[in-house]
Design a protein that fits this description.
The complex is a heterodimer of chains A (806) and B (348).
Chain A: E1 2-4, H1 5-8, H2 18-27, E2 32-37, E3 43-55, E4 62-67, E5 73-78, E6 88-101, E7 108-113, E8 116-119, E9 122-125, E10 127-128, E11 171-175, H3 187-198, E12 220-223, E13 231-238, H4 247-255, H5 263-275, E14 279-283, E15 291-296, E16 302-304, E17 310-312, E18 318-321, E19 326-329, E20 333-334, E21 347-353, H6 356-366, H7 371-378, H8 383-399, E22 403-412, E23 420-425, H9 426-433, H10 439-448, E24 454-456, E25 459-464, H11 474-485, H12 507-521, E26 525-526, E27 532-533, H13 535-540, E28 565-566, H14 571-583, E29 589-599, E30 610-620, H15 626-639, E31 644-648, E32 654-664, E33 667-675, H16 677-682, E34 689-695, H17 696-699, E35 718-727, H18 732-742, E36 746-755, E37 764-773, H19 784-800, E38 803-804
Helix pairs in contact in A: 4-5, 5-8, 6-7, 9-11, 10-11, 12-15, 18-19
Chain B: H1 4-24, H2 28-39, H3 44-50, H4 57-96, H5 115-128, E1 133-134, E2 140-142, H6 143-146, E3 171-173, H7 179-187, E4 192-201, E5 212-222, H8 227-242, E6 248-255, E7 258-267, E8 284-293, H9 295-300, E9 309-316, H10 317-325, H11 338-341
Parallel strand pairs in B: 1-4
Antiparallel strand pairs in B: 2-3, 4-5, 5-9, 6-7, 7-8, 8-9
Helix pairs in contact in B: 1-4, 2-4, 5-10
Classes of the chains: A alpha+beta (806), B alpha+beta (348).
Chain lengths: 806, 348
């Protein structure tokens, strides 16, 4: 929220520097996001009196003699059409800094420093300035919008600094207001906090006015939707003369970002900024039937707002109507049919409280917003409805914009928040803080916040002002006290009263961290991807229409379609990550991600879905292969002290002959394989990629397994190398399984060579294994192992027709 | 007919030959061959032994002695030659195996945990030592746990569709790990000390916001928990994570689920509080939000707010990671660019 220092000073005597005020605000909970000094870019511009002004022949230029008082007299060439002798203008001295404009004298291009110059042979020492060159516009200072020189008042002292004269000696605070303090969304609200923190009196704005005998016969206000409009005040003003508002009001509105429109409209905007209460002015002549009805819109009812946009409404929208139909979208914007025109002669002011939830939802649903709807969405307290109306009527009189009638319709649904009493224990207040704030400080602070505290023993009684709807119980008092007393009084203690608890990670958390570290140890870097992905990610993987990955939870309001589904697989984001790396010329690497897959039990959701923790691996590079990835998967098995087995599998996104499902104890726990060449091409990958996914939810049943010591064999093991010839289709796994099955003393089978070629028949291959035999209770005798080898050979021959390579 | 004189001359000649030979030998293999040539039974010296048969009997003793001396001398010589040759051969082998030690290594480099995981685990270690357990909630939550139970009234701006991703009228993507607080307090009696890390989601996507980020929530519920305890605990925390000498500053703020609520700044660990680009000249860096658990939240979980009180704090882990490692763009954390991930080494 923007608050000019000069405006704040209307309500509180600020005797600290602008920077000190910023710190004070910060310490009591109002962060100043930006503190801007007006005219900070402007220097050495003084009041100059043109004493002589002669045209330069054949040009539009004049050569002027300018008196700058104590600074001296200077000859200045000037191209403006309104330069004349005897007038005062801003004179930028040599060395001054002003705003630089383009040739049109309007478009700001930066800053410039004034130097001595020569025009058409005439020396020029300095520059006479326009409003734009000082960074001000017509609203900030009358005449500043003219495309020519800014004319200064005749009584301006020659040679004086021009900045205070044109209002460039001000500071603007842009203050962040927390959601619990809508009462501070106004200059007055901030001033109230400043008064409290500086220990000063708050000076309320004048709200007196003098209603005439005139009444608006038959005018009525009816609230048919009291749940959405607890308070509605209408006041009739007549003999209205629409015209521009005075310079001081225009300037203030400009400083807080409002354009001046006309006196009546400016009053509503001014009061909103000053007091925080949005107001509206209806043209009295255009309120058909001379009545106001506040009601929910009929389905399909239409309104055209001030900005000439038409809206079709629903029953959820609140409208202000006259006898015939809507004249305003309540709290959001007035209707075009009743807007204030130059010819308006009577006005009905509205000051009301509308429920913030309704205004926010309507504003959002209709896509229509305004300063008013923004204020109502943050919350407007009923307290300000009367204050603001009275202030507006005072301003009508002050500006001479009209006469205030006696006709006021105030509809109060009877649930107004009035100032009320709250009692609390001082001890409890201090217990929240953990320190003891002296009673006199508590009284001082709460007095400053207009809460009239009385302390009686341990009992604190305060009066909650109507504008503090956020105050509910003693922790709120504790917060008020400490933010004014100072958080630096809080002395650190370390849970001195608390019981000792046992902390740390549980088995699942420990195991998952171990797995992450294990993946790092095999050279993989951890990635984190979004929990949502794109339907096109499923298309990339060629997941069929009825594939289970397509049963994904959809976001109702995603940022875009690419982030619209809760992911059911981690593979596509991994593939895209690999692709991004390859595009950045990282042509080899290893990544892993540990994250959830989301599997709904029903759609739309009726209960919590499954969030299944998954480990996804992705590797790429010329040195990588199915087997390097398999090695990483084995590292997972090893970390968990498990044994995985592998079977061929078919996945739409994996190489048909380089894909396997991973099993543990017969349970399928994942897959691994090479990404298809089609996908590789789709995502522009130069080198092949391999991905694996392991279902940690399934593996978690084995978490916490402890390795048990097996005594080492008492007698030496024996090893034999055996090479077999077999059809190409026989797998290593089949042979291994047969060897293990043939003899219980076999403890290890390692493939060490595969051969296909000239020395073997076509369609056949040779595989050579080292088989380890471990003795049990007795040492192997000379020919024991030969006997076991025979058993293996017989088994392979009779069950698979496979023989030793000769 | 051999005689002693002739033998002595021969022996001298053989010695000469061996000496000469030694100079010409270039390998241990050649030395071995040369030794054989002299010392085998059929070798030059062996032959002299054979010749003893024809030496007159009275000279046999002297003859034998002379040959044996020669043999002993030759053996010793060949030992020396062999040793020298082997040494020379080893030197040649070393020389032949010279490498350029500046050539790249065979890659055996471990990968790194993600910067956010590093922060997360460091935070868990710090708070676990203070007695905190870890509770990981679900990313998909109900409106009740994410908002209502956390005293976020129906018409609070934070509930707006603009900020929250909804999956159904009831289910949403949690916007804060605070949602986990409620589950814990519903199922566990005080004393409670939990840490709740996890992914959270908000409908923001620009240069400084990511629609998904990670939070770490802490909650303590026990008797007589105060704002001073919060300050004390966070003082320890910032020193552990940002270094000795880091201090905290509390300032008023607002969260629906805490009262009082504070923003917590820590003194800038880059400049020590003097003001630099990291702290934008203020000497302070905003690190987390915290407060005393709102009485209504305790009530919502069936905990008597007159008997127990609590403190809660929450921080964005990406923010901590970015501060700690000097990462300037949050998007870098989700792009899985190895050139980025390789730079952030594991701390422990």
């Amino acid at each position: 929220m923007l608050a000019p220092l000069s405006w704040l000073k209307d309500y509180v005597d600020i005797d600290v520097t602008p920077q000190e005020l910023e710190e004070k605000l910060f310490s009591c909970g109002f962060e100043v996001e930006e503190l801007t000094q007006l005219g900070a870019d402007i220097s050495d511009v003084v009041v100059g009196l043109v004493t002589q002004c002669d045209p330069i022949p054949e040009t539009h230029l004049h050569v002027c003699q300018v008196d700058a008082g104590a600074h001296g007299s200077f000859q200045v060439c000037c191209g403006a059409d309104n330069v004349e002798a005897g007038k005062k203008y801003p004179l930028a001295l040599v060395g001054a800094q002003v705003i630089e404009t383009a040739k049109d004298h309007v478009t700001v291009t930066g800053l410039m420093t004034i130097k001595k110059g020569k025009l058409r042979g005439y020396d020029s020492e300095g520059m006479l300035c326009s409003g734009t060159e000082l960074g001000i516009n017509e609203d900030m200072y009358p005449g500043a919008g003219y495309n020519g020189l800014l004319v200064l008042p005749d009584d301006a002292e020659v040679g004086a600094d021009v900045k205070p004269i044109v209002g460039l000696d001000d500071w603007i605070y842009d203050i962040a207001i927390t959601a619990n303090r809508p009462d501070c969304q106004s200059i007055l609200g901030i001033a109230r906090e400043i008064a409290a923190v500086l220990g000063k009196e708050l000076k309320m704005p004048a709200t007196d006015f003098h209603p005439t005998e005139v009444v608006n016969d038959g005018f009525s206000v009816t609230v048919e939707a009291p749940d959405l409009c607890p308070r509605y005040i209408g006041h009739y003003v007549y003999d209205v003369k629409i015209g521009p508002s005075p310079a001081w009001m225009r300037r203030r509105l400009a400083l807080v970002g409002n354009n001046a429109i006309s006196n009546v409209v400016d009053i509503t905007n001014y009061v909103m900024k000053e007091i925080g209460q949005p107001m509206h002015a209806f043209d009295g002549e255009f309120l058909r039937g001379n009545r106001i009805i506040v009601r929910r819109a009929a389905e399909g009812e239409k309104i055209v707002t001030l900005d000439e946009k038409e809206f079709a409404l629903t029953n959820e929208n609140l409208v202000i109507c006259d006898a015939e139909g809507p004249v305003a979208l309540a709290g959001i914007m007035g209707g075009l049919n009743s807007e204030i025109r130059d010819t308006t002669t009577s006005v009905t002011f509205e000051s009301a409280k509308f429920m913030r939830d309704n205004i926010r939802k309507s504003s959002r649903a209709l896509g229509q917003s305004s300063d008013s709807s923004a204020a109502f969405s943050k919350g407007v307290y009923e307290y300000t409805t009367v204050l603001a109306m009275n202030r507006a009527l005072h301003l009508i009189e002050e500006l001479g914009a009209g006469k205030v009638s006696s006709t006021r319709m105030d509809v109060n649904t009877g649930n107004s928040i009035e100032p009320h009493e709250m009692k609390a224990s001082i001890r409890k207040v201090n217990d929240v803080l953990g320190i003891t704030v002296p009673d006199e400080d508590i009284v001082r602070i709460l007095t400053g916040l207009n809460m009239d505290p009385v302390i009686n023993g341990d009992e604190l009684t305060i009066q909650i002002p109507a504008y503090r709807e956020d105050m509910e119980s003693y922790p709120d008092i504790a917060e008020e006290v400490i933010r004014m007393y100072g958080y630096d009084h809080v002395q650190p203690t370390f849970l001195k009263e608390a019981l000792v608890t046992m902390g740390g990670r549980n088995v699942k958390q420990k195991t998952e961290l171990k797995l992450r570290r294990s993946m790092c140890s095999v050279g993989a870097y951890e990635a984190i991807h979004y929990s949502f992905f794109s339907p096109s990610d499923l298309d990339l993987l060629r997941i069929p229409e009825d594939g289970k990955e397509r049963t994904a939870i959809r976001l109702i309001n995603p940022i875009n379609e690419d982030l619209s589904l809760m992911r059911t697989t981690l593979a596509p984001q991994m593939i895209r990550a690999i692709s991004r790396n390859q595009k950045k010329a990282t042509l080899a690497g290893r990544l892993f991600e540990m994250g959830s897959r989301f599997e709904p039990k029903a759609l739309p959701l009726t209960e919590y879905p499954e969030e299944n923790m998954t480990l996804c691996l992705g590797i790429w590079g010329e040195q990588e292969s199915f087997f390097t990835l398999k090695g990483m998967v084995e590292a997972v098995a090893d970390t968990l002290l498990l044994k995985f087995t592998y079977e061929p599998c078919v996945k739409t996104f994996l190489h048909p002959y380089r894909a396997a499902k991973v099993l543990c104890d017969g349970v399928e726990v994942g897959y691994l394989g090479q990404v298809t060449y089609e996908i590789q091409k789709d995502v522009d990958m130069r080198v092949p990629a391999y991905v694996a996914e392991l279902d940690l939810k399934a593996l978690s049943q084995w978490y916490g397994k402890v390795g048990r010591f097996e005594p080492l064999p008492k007698f030496p093991v024996e090893k034999r190398d055996l090479a077999f010839v077999m059809p190409e289709t026989v797998t290593c796994g089949q042979i291994e399984e047969a060897i293990y099955g043939a003899c219980k003393y076999v403890t290890d089978v390692q493939l060490f060579d595969v051969y296909e070629g000239a020395q073997i028949l076509t369609g056949m291959k040779s595989m050579a294994f080292t088989v380890t035999f471990t003795p049990g209770e007795e040492e192997f005798k000379a020919d024991t192992v030969d006997g076991y080898v025979d058993k293996i050979l017989r088994k392979l021959k009779f069950t698979m027709g496979i023989e030793l390579r000769s | 007919m051999a005689d002693l004189n002739e033998l002595r001359q021969r022996a001298e000649k053989i010695r000469e030959e061996i000496r000469k030979n030694a100079e010409q030998l270039t390998s241990s293999k050649a030395a071995y061959e040369a030794r054989k040539n002299f010392l085998d039974k059929k070798g030059v010296i062996g032959q002299l032994m054979q010749d003893m048969k024809s030496v007159p009997a009275d000279q046999k003793a002297e003859y034998g002695k002379t040959v044996n001396e020669l043999k002993a001398w030759a053996s010793e010589r060949f030992e020396e030659i062999d040793k020298k040759m082997r040494q020379r051969e080893l030197e040649l082998r070393y020389a032949s195996e010279k490498i350029d030690i500046t050539m790249p290594p065979v890659k055996m480099v471990p990968g790194h945990l993600h910067p956010v995981t590093q922060v997360r685990e460091e935070l868990i270690d710090i708070f676990a030592s203070m007695g905190f357990e870890v509770y990981e909630g679900t990313e998909i939550e109900t409106d009740y746990y994410n908002f209502t139970a956390l005293n976020t009234p129906q018409d609070h701006p934070a509930r707006d569709m603009q900020d929250t991703f909804y999956l159904s009228p009831e289910f949403l993507l949690r916007t804060q790990t605070s949602a986990g607080q409620i589950h814990v307090m519903e199922s566990k009696k005080p004393p409670i000390k939990i840490l709740s890390p996890g992914k959270v989601f908000r409908s923001d996507d620009d240069a400084t916001h990511s629609p998904m980020f990670s939070q770490m929530e802490g909650l303590v519920v026990d008797k007589k928990i105060t704002l001073s305890d919060l300050k004390g605990m966070l003082d320890v925390f910032v020193q552990k994570i940002f270094g000795e000498g880091t201090t905290t500053r509390l300032r008023p703020s607002y969260f629906p689920f805490t009262e009082p609520s504070v923003e917590v700044d820590c003194s800038c660990f880059s400049c020590g509080g003097k003001g630099c680009s990291l702290c934008k000249g203020t000497g302070w860096i905003e690190v987390l939000g915290a407060g005393i658990v709102n009485r209504k939240v305790l009530e919502n979980c069936g905990i008597d707010p007159d008997e127990y009180s609590g403190l809660a704090f929450g921080m964005g882990m990406e923010r901590i990671a970015m501060l700690k490692y000097g990462i300037n763009n949050i998007k870098l954390l989700f792009e899985s660019d190895l050139q980025v991930l390789e730079q952030i080494g594991d701390q422990e």
